[in-house]
Structure formats: structure tokens, C-alpha cells
Design a protein that fits this description.
GO terms for molecular function: DNA binding; DNA-binding transcription factor activity. By secondary structure, the protein is α+β, with helices and mostly antiparallel strands. A hairpin with a 2-residue loop joins strand 9 and strand 10.
Length: 299
């Protein structure tokens, strides 16, 4: 049997008020509309629900039983709706983010501790992978990528650093043996430690100076997947070759003297990462809380 919820609500209003005119005063329906709705419900159920006289309207035994059940059901529905609306104002639940390794390593550590303290009821799940990703198919609330890897028609929010640089460095021992490259093309004569994504071809190293862009296909004693670039850094520190990564990744070794900057005037800068997600309406409360947290926490 197909349910007629509007007729059920009309019946509750009339039975509770004790009359059609009385119910119409607190309803968005006229007395005649209420009468028609109740009659429709009675016809649908095949049972009389109300005793009607010129002076009053009372429930039949079937009507009293139905009223009791409907009132309990309506109370449960209102409680369920109220419970759902609480998620709008009280962030809790799970926030699933799909991010590249560089963001997981260099950006999120500066954001998540403070966010977790501000929103202790939000549990953050991080899925680290590279390339263009369909965040809905991946079961994620949002993704973080650099602009060339962001899916089209997404809402974008800057996250973390406004600008970043790729840095190139080698150990003092390596440079003492092989000398400093003075131009990116000089890297053809050096041992380099390139990275690749998912078993693909090693990514070229890109440099820029005064509007001139130079891309170099480098080679060396090892090619390392981007998920294991710590190995490339370790090999560079041990004097095996030149490494080219995010500046933040190499800065601790540069600060300690384990690595020395190379070709610094050619280090290419680029825009920082972006948080992207579907639509501006009905954003889940954990994601909305994270977006609001990002604005004052950029660098």
C-alpha cells in the first residue's frame, strides 16, 4: 500500500485539535482540504477514523490506535532529522583526504596537529597516491593536488604554502670530486638521482631563470620511485650523486651541511597545493571544519 504522508499529517492535526476548523488555524491547509485529506486516508485504509458531528470530531477506536502509532512515528522522525542537523554545527565523524606523498610529508604535518586539537571529534584518514584521482570513486571527501593534477569542475581552496621551489643539492664530497654544475645542461655530465611515478619513465628535472625554462633528462646510479625518495636523499648525502626535490625535503640536510645547494639561481618556484572537492552546498561538517581551518593557517 502506497503511503500518503500528507493525509496522515492532516489526520493527526484534526484528531489532535478536535475539529477541522480548529486544525486549520494551526495548519497550512484549509478546513475543506483537511476534510478531503482525512477522507482520502479513510478510503485508502478502508476504515473510518473519525466520528464527525456538527459539534465535534472524535476518533474511532481504529482512529485512536492509528493516532497513537503515528504520533510515536512522527516523534521518531523529528528526532532523526534533528540528529542529522546536528552534524551541521558540531563537526564530528571522518574526513578522508587523498593526497600525494609530498603533501603528506611536507604540508599536512604543519596542519593536522592543530586541526585535531581544534576539532577532536573529527577523525582524519589520509590516502597517499599520485596522479589525477576521482575523489568520489576513491571514497574520499576531498583531494589535495597541484594545479596540473586537479580534476576539472572542482571547488578549489589553497592549502599550506602559497609558493614552493624545487631544490637541487649534492654532498660536499661529491662536489669535491666532480665539481659544481654551472648550468642545468651540465647535469648531463653528472651522476643524478631521478625519481619516477608508479614504474614510469623518470621525470625530467625542470629549471627556470629570468623566464628561460630548461628541462633536463638526467641519469645516474639509481632511479627511485617517488614513494621512496628518502632513499635518494640518503644516497645524495653519501656522495652518490645530485638530488632534485622539494626544497622543504632537502632543507634539513642543507642546514646541517650534509648537502650543498647546486644551481640555486635556477631553482624553479611554483604555486602551492590546492584542496579540491565537489560542490559548495551540503559540504560534510568535517570537511567544512577543515576548509575553515585552512584559511588562517597558510604560509
Amino acid at each position: 500500500m502506497k503511503s500518503d504522508f500528507s493525509a496522515a499529517r492532516a489526520f493527526i492535526a484534526v484528531a489532535t485539535a478536535g475539529g477541522f476548523r480548529e486544525a486549520a488555524k494551526t495548519s497550512d491547509m484549509s478546513a475543506s482540504s483537511l476534510s478531503g485529506a482525512v477522507r482520502r486516508l479513510e478510503d485508502q485504509l478502508g476504515v473510518r477514523l473519525l466520528n464527525r458531528t456538527t459539534r465535534s470530531v472524535t476518533t474511532t477506536e481504529a482512529g485512536a490506535h492509528l493516532l497513537h502509532r503515528l504520533q510515536a512515528a512522527m516523534s521518531e522522525m523529528e528526532a532523526a532529522l534533528e540528529s542529522a542537523s546536528e552534524f551541521r554545527g558540531m563537526p564530528s565523524g571522518t574526513l578522508r583526504l587523498n593526497v600525494p606523498l609530498g603533501v603528506a610529508r611536507l604540508v599536512l604535518p604543519r596542519l593536522l596537529p592543530g586541526f585535531s586539537k581544534a576539532y577532536p571529534d573529527v577523525r582524519v584518514e589520509i590516502i597517499a597516491e599520485h596522479g589525477v584521482v576521482d575523489i568520489l570513486a576513491a571514497g574520499c571527501d576531498a583531494g589535495i593536488r597541484y594545479n596540473d593534477k586537479v580534476t576539472k569542475n572542482m571547488v578549489l581552496t589553497p592549502i599550506g604554502p602559497s609558493r614552493q621551489r624545487f631544490a637541487t643539492a649534492a654532498s660536499p664530497a661529491y662536489l669535491a670530486r666532480h665539481g659544481y654544475p654551472l648550468h642545468p645542461q651540465d647535469l648531463d655530465r653528472h651522476a643524478c638521482l631521478p625519481a619516477f611515478v608508479g614504474g614510469g619513465h623518470p621525470m625530467p628535472w625542470e629549471f627556470e631563470k629570468e623566464g628561460e625554462i630548461v628541462r633536463v633528462e638526467v641519469q645516474g646510479p639509481a632511479t627511485v620511485d617517488v614513494t621512496a625518495v628518502d632513499l635518494a636523499v640518503s644516497m645524495a648525502v653519501d656522495g652518490c650523486g645530485i638530488v632534485h626535490l622539494y626544497e622543504e625535503w632537502l632543507q634539513p640536510q642543507i642546514d646541517s651541511g650534509a648537502l650543498v645547494p647546486v644551481l640555486e639561481p635556477w631553482w624553479q618556484s611554483f604555486d602551492g597545493p590546492l584542496l579540491f572537492y565537489h560542490g559548495r552546498e551540503h559540504v560534510p561538517a568535517p570537511l567544512r571544519a577543515f576548509i575553515d581551518y585552512l584559511c588562517p593557517h597558510r604560509w
